[in-house]
Amino acid sequence: MTTATAPPAEPQERSGLPSWAIQGLVSLSAIVLALVVGAILIIVGDDEVKKAAGYFGAAPLDTFSAAFSAVGEAYKALAVGAIGGVTPISESLTQATPLICGGLAVSLAFRTGLFNIGAQGQLIMGAILAGYVGFAWHLPPVLHLIVAIVAGLIGGALWGGVVGLLKARTGAHEVIVTIMLNYVAIYLLQWLLTTTTFQRPGRADPISPVVDANAQYPQFGDTRLHVGFLLALVAAVFVWWLLNKSTVGFELRAVGANADASKTAGMSVGRAYVIAMVVAGALAGLAGTQQVLGTDLPLTDGVAASVGFDAITVALLGRGTPLGTVLAGLLFGALNAGGLQMQLITQTPLTLTTVLQATIVLFVAAPALVRSVFRFLPKDRGSGTILAKGWNG
Amino acid sequence: MKKFVRGTAIVGVLTLAVAACGSKPAESGPSGGSDNKAFKACMVSDSGGFDDKSFNQTSYKGLQDAVKAKGLTEVKAESKSDNDYPTNMTAMVAAKCNVIVAVGFKLEDATDKAANANAGIKFAIVDSAPAKPIANVKPLGFNTAQSSFQAGYLAAAMSKSGKVGTFGGVKIPPVTIFMDGFAEGVAYYNKQKSKNVTLLGWDEAKQDGLFTGDFEDKAKGQNNAQNLITQGADIIFPVAGPSGLGGLQAAKASNGKVNAIWVDTDGCESAAEYCSVLISSVKKGMDVAVQDAITSVVDNKFDNKQFIGTLENGGTALAPFHEFDSKVPAELKTELEQIKTDIIGGKITIESKVQPKAS
After folding, report:
1. Are B172 and A344 a contacting pair at CB < 8 A?
2. What is the per-residue pLDDT across B61-72, written as a single tens digit (0 to 9) for each?
3. Residue B114 sits in a domain of what CATH number?
4. What are the distances in angstroms from CA B53 to CA A278, B48, B58, B61?
């Protein structure tokens, strides 16, 4: 066994654990730390605790018991709301669905050395096209849904493809381009919703008609969970296959690891950028279809919510791998669903879940910080590199 | 030990709770005279959240007032995005709420659906109305064009440059109704006094003007206001919720050259740091309307008739002048009162097409 006393010569022998296990441990530790931070916030914000602290000198134990019960109740409600029964679980999966697809869009680009901040815009373009086909066209069952999904994929792929093309041809930095295209997409959507083509008849506010029943993802029973979730899993398998089993994927990963070396080896770096962004855009577009065809939501200026941005944190937490992204998406979906329940039962503000999500990612992005708290965690020099890649790419 | 004592003391002061007595309070029952703890009054916010210093916050105050006055149980659900509306509505129904208040037109679909499926629960919706009246949904509308008319007149009279400006958040009726009323107030001043005060940022005939595009981004509000100031406006009327606060920042930065009129709440109370530049505010009495709607359910007097807040019933009003009280001429104050009387009496007709109509 190699220990800290004898620095390992080979990267594979860093510790007794394989790299994925270490990364998993770091992620788990980050979640635990985030929950601790959240607990502190709950205690500080709780009225009962404040009241008990007011007479701390008289009955100090009251403060601690109030703090304990505040944290306990809040986290219990969070857990019950996320996984306590069929409805909560279905709600968690529903919330996770677009996050997984969006996360894959960011992950795939990461692996090619691109920092795709544009999932939001690609998602919106997908939602616009899918929504339009959904409410303006009237096709038979099944066919309508398929056409609407394809429209959404095309919308996202085009929006992503533009970025790849600009990067490949002109070297324009994808971070700048994707951020700007996000604005173009959201303002385009806002403008479209004021036109008679998109605005619901009889309404003066920016909202479209609801899509035809034929174009909606079939739902499972009484829940809001829909077939889009299965598509998200299929998409994850596809990305895994693309990256790990296909020639194209090998090129993408090679370019992501070292663009110059890939070029010398005879690969077309530009081609890899375009392919990665087209596929990433299509994945984000798929998330867009899930928003507008899946959860009974008309096209509004809030259709994308913050899914495209949350997707970045999902991808970071998932460390750019398809499986990791799915797991991270599920975690965030569960936090979102549980958060709604937590505020209902314990009146804990919804923003706490946002804090939890952000803190988890913060700790994941700073493994050294986590390691300084959890000393037993072994070192893994490989972790973290993927996170810093984009800006240099 | 010293540190520990000091820390405890700080905690005590911070909590504002009877730090001085420091003794454990005796177990007390629910406070307040009447007690309807079994009655659940619920509210779902739109994506702005309950802390938006505007629309959701004022409505929430109405819920709190009703809960306090009647001894009810309060349940609230904040929506983080448009996706949350159906979920939150379903959760409220599952929580066995007696009355559910939906804040904003964005919740219209979710409210209608929940109301049709649950005839036993009463609903109220702020700033919107179902396409066809629903027996258990009470729409709460506000004719803020009336008080904005007064604000327009006030702004035109107070402007030294002869130019006043406005900008909105998003071009939707609950926003443009303010801008319409403001525009008509300016026009009325010009007609009465044979002056030529120009309004920048809104063209009522074309229904087009200056917008930030959202209700959150203060920087955009500041840009828009700066844009108006550069064009010569010396009074700004931002109708953009928290984004409009940027407009107040721009006004404050002008060192007294530019002033503003706030909307929804009395700005001197909700955004006190800007009170020095606020001539007045156009108040939209969502708190009163929400409280009345909830109380009517408690008292078994609920009806689904459209409520419209007007100058007459106090559902909308021009706020006090606060720090400008001495700067607004007495004559102008009398004229504003006269305008109020004339609007209530029907002598002044407001043309704006987005005014809520009685059902």
Report:
1. no
2. 999 999 999 999
3. 3.40.50.2300
4. 42, 10, 8, 11
